[in-house]
């Protein structure tokens, strides 16, 4: 059997058309790139969760494969510093039309592998000039540590783990036969090892008839070298690793080309067949493969150096959502971190639009460096952000639902809870041409409806400056890449109002015009208005469907955490970059980000740009590293 790994065909190899009656099409293979995580540093509970998910995957997928590609490269930083990095990429193959719910799968074919140019008895020469040798593993011991395959990642260039379910009736028969043999052996020679094996087979004979499946599996290691010397050095290392775990491995001669294609059955003319290994899906959890202790993700953004002096290359799309929160007190390097990320992200991931809401004009100053247009909102500037021009109609067009709009305006104009149902009914009962029409209608009804009169007392400011400028005039141009500065607006409520309405207006772009970045700075300013956080959270949630990235930064995380919708933003963001904090942030750090007291203490005394990044299961210390050019442009301080 040949597992469909893409390789280049040899010269002259032709596909022959079958003259027989066409057979029913075989199920095709679908490949996913999956997300790795650290393993050794996790708690036993978190490790058990990952291995349990792997067991569920093996039970669900009748025929599948894991392909691990390890590639060494160099990362150039600041045109002077060249940093060696190792990229380990993980792929999951599934035969048949089956959706995989684990490990954040993204449909993606595995890289095209070099093809075999020449074949020698004990290795092959590839068309890129390198030498390759394939080892197959067999005779595994009864006990292996969870995640043991990670030990090979620093040596092998490729790892291939293929499995398929043994039919249930055959599996039950095989296990029962093995149990009977073990019972017979124990009766004649009751050693501790045999008794342990018998106990396991008895347990397995019960489980195999239920949800546990028996697998036939194969494990291949591919090592490559520039010459015989490098290949020989890797051979010795991989043999030592296997021997230490009591695993037998072999590189069979005269079949290296076939094994390089990950074949599990060979021609009848070849006197060799790969050994079939059998294991139940519970025991197979020890083969959990998706491990990478360093946060080095190919196609990611270089942020800096970890506490173990390893580069941090972060890919936001390797997470289960694309939301990033950046928290740090003034002077901690928070704005620098976001600016560096935005600049480098747009260089690595071309084609992303940029939209920044900038309450304090931190980003307006460097809009040209970030490749965006700066829009500085002035106090008497007419913005044309009338929400009734954005409202969803009966045809489902529009940007905001009338009920959501009523809740948003109620928040921003401090309408008490007992009047909000009345206001929602009022908004949904009429088709207002503008927000000014809404106030006019209240004026008309105030003498006949006491509740409307009360509502008018909260909304009458709409028709007067500064609020009237927000709604009146032609809408500001938000097309293209924009950074909207709000510093000159005189109070937090006005900034929250403009932020909310611009967020609504931007949805047309965020959800329909290519992939976008939506960044909100100084998010604590909106902590008084739960519906504003609710709107931002909804935009972040919906944006994932369109591949949008949401970045939320604040210097006062406790204010955000004190708001239920704000808390959701912090807790549900897959990535958090935590820089130096004040003691008042302790509760947030411990509860929202599960930091230990030592980690919280580290953040209280961290230097500028120094902190902790938590990305999925990764949690490590980091020093953000701007280049001298970035430091000069993005900061007024020489440190960061």
Written description of the protein model:
The protein is an alpha+beta fold. 32% of the residues lie in helices and 22% in strands. It is built from 18 helices and 22 strands. The strands form 2 sheets. Strands 1, 2, 3, 4, 5, 6, 7, 8, 9, 10 and 11 form an 11-stranded antiparallel β-sheet that branches. α9 (435-445) runs antiparallel to α10 (450-459) and α13 runs parallel beside α15 (564-572). Residues 1-18 have low confidence and may be disordered.
Rg over alpha carbons: 30 Å
Shape: elongated
Largest sheet: 11 strands, antiparallel
How much helix, percentage-wise, in residues?
A: 25-40%
Determine the N-to-C terminus distance.
58 Å
Catalogue the unreliable spans: 1-18
Overall average residue pLDDT: 89
Beta-strand portion reads 15-25%
Structural class: alpha+beta
Q: Based on the structure, what is the oligomeric state of the protein chains?
A: single chain
Number of E-type strands? 22
Number of helices: 18
SSE topology sketch:
Elements (H helix, E strand, L loop, with lengths): L28 E6 L9 H17 L2 E15 L3 E15 L10 E2 L8 E5 L2 E4 L4 E8 L19 E8 L2 H21 L3 H16 L6 E12 L2 H17 L3 E3 L5 H5 L16 E4 L20 E6 L4 E4 L8 E5 L6 H15 L4 E6 L14 E4 L25 H11 L7 H10 L5 H11 L4 H10 L7 H5 L10 E4 L6 H19 L5 E5 L9 H14 L5 E6 L2 H5 L2 H9 L2 E4 L7 H7 L4 H8 L5 E6 L2 E7 L3 H7 L6
Parallel strand pairs: 14-19, 14-20, 15-17, 15-18, 16-17, 18-19
Antiparallel strand pairs: 1-3, 1-4, 2-3, 2-8, 5-6, 6-7, 7-9, 7-10, 8-9, 9-11, 12-13, 12-22, 20-21, 21-22
Name a few traits of the molecule.
eleven-stranded antiparallel sheet, elongated, 22 strands, eleven-stranded mixed sheet, alpha+beta, 640 residues, disordered N terminus
């Amino acid at each position: 059997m040949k597992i469909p790994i893409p390789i280049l065909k040899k010269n002259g190899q032709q596909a022959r058309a079958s003259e027989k009656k066409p057979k029913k099409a075989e199920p095709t293979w679908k490949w996913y790139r999956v997300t790795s995580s650290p393993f050794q540093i996790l708690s036993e509970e978190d490790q058990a969760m990952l291995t349990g998910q792997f067991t569920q995957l093996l039970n669900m997928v009748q025929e599948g494969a894991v392909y691990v590609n390890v590639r060494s490269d160099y990362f150039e930083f600041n045109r002077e510093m060249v940093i060696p990095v190792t990229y380990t990429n993980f792929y999951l193959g599934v035969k048949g039309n089956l959706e995989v719910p684990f490990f954040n799968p993204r449909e993606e074919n595995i890289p095209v592998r070099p093809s075999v140019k020449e074949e020698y008895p004990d290795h092959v020469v590839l068309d890129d000039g390198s030498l390759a040798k394939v080892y197959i593993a067999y005779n595994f011991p009864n006990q292996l540590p969870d995640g043991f395959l990670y030990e090979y990642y620093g040596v092998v260039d490729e790892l291939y783990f293929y499995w398929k379910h043994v039919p249930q009736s055959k599996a039950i028969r095989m296990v029962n036969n093995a149990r009977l043999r073990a019972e017979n052996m124990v009766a004649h020679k009751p050693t501790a090892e045999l008794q342990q094996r018998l106990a396991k087979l008895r347990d397995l004979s019960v489980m195999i008839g239920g949800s546990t499946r028996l697998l036939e599996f194969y494990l291949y290691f591919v090592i490559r070298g520039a010459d015989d010397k490098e290949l020989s050095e890797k051979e010795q290392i991989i043999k030592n690793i296997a021997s230490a775990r009591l695993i037998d491995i072999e590189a069979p001669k005269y079949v290296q080309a076939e094994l390089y294609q990950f074949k599990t059955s060979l021609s009848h003319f070849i006197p060799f067949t790969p050994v079939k290994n059998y294991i139940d899906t519970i025991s197979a959890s020890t083969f959990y493969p998706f491990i990478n202790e360093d946060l080095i993700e190919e196609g990611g953004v270089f942020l800096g150096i970890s506490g173990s002096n390893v580069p941090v290359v972060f890919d936001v799309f390797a997470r289960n959502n694309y939301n990033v929160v950046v928290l740090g007190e003034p002077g901690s390097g928070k704005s620098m971190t976001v600016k560096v990320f935005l600049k480098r992200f747009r260089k690595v991931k071309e084609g992303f639009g940029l939209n920044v809401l900038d309450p304090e004009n931190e980003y307006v100053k460097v809009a040209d460096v970030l490749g965006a247009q700066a829009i500085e909102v002035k106090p008497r500037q007419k913005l044309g952000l009338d929400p009734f021009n954005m409202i969803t109609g009966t045809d489902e067009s529009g940007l905001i639902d009338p009920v959501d709009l009523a809740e948003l305006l109620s928040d921003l104009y401090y309408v008490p809870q007992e009047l909000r149902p009345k206001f929602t009914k009022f908004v949904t009962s009429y088709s207002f041409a503008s927000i000014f029409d809404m106030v006019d209608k209240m004026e008309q009804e105030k003498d006949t409806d006491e509740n409307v009169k009360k509502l008018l007392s909260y909304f009458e400011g709409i028709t007067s400056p500064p609020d009237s400028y927000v709604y009146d005039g032609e809408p500001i141009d938000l097309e293209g890449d924009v950074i909207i500065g709000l510093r000159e607006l005189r109070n937090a409520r006005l900034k929250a109002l403009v932020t909310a309405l611009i967020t609504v207006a931007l949805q047309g772009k965020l959800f329909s015009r290519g992939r976008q970045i939506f960044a909100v700075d100084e998010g604590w300013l909106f902590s008084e208005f739960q519906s504003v956080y609710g709107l931002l959270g909804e935009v972040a949630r919906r944006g994932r469907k369109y591949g949008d990235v949401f970045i939320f930064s604040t210097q006062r995380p406790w204010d955000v955490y004190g708001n239920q919708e704000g808390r959701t933003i912090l807790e549900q963001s897959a990535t958090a970059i935590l820089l130096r904090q004040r003691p008042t942030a302790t509760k947030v750090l411990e509860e929202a980000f599960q930091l230990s007291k030592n980690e919280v203490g580290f953040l209280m005394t961290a230097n500028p740009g120094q902190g902790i990044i938590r990305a999925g299961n990764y949690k490590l210390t980091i020093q953000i590293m701007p280049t001298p050019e970035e430091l000069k442009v993005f900061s007024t301080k020489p440190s960061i």
